[in-house]
Amino acid sequence: xxxxxxxxxxxxxxxxxxxxxxxxxxxxxxxxxxxxxxxxxxxxxxxxxxxxxxxxxxxxxxxxxxxxxxxxxxxxxxxxxxxxxxxxxxxxxxxxxxxxxxxxxxxxxxxxxxxxxxxxxxxxxxxxxxxxxxxxxxxxxxxxxxxxx
Length: 149
What we know:
Blueprint: H1 3-12, H2 19-29, H3 32-44, H4 47-62, H5 71-148
Helix pairs in contact: 3-5
């Protein structure tokens, strides 16, 4: 994929300050299927979608496209519901993938912090040992100087 197109698409994505999420978004944007699913999910979750359906159902009934009990409309709406539920699951999978990216990054941070804490504890113990050695040396030297007088 051309880098300029990828950068252009990235600029259209909502800002995500977490670099791990940005990397995940780049990988997701590389797939045409994911981009289509994201656009359908975004539209299906908008008020425009609701207004369009109010207009559609109202027109269907007002212009008497079919008579009550609206069998064709019921079938169309049922099929639409099946497809939309699939897109909801796709959206949930995307959200789960984001949560997993964040969890993995946090776990990596925890491990790095643990390593740094161990290093700091080792340095603190070395400082303590050196302090004890200096104390022992100065106490012994002071005792020797007192006895020499």
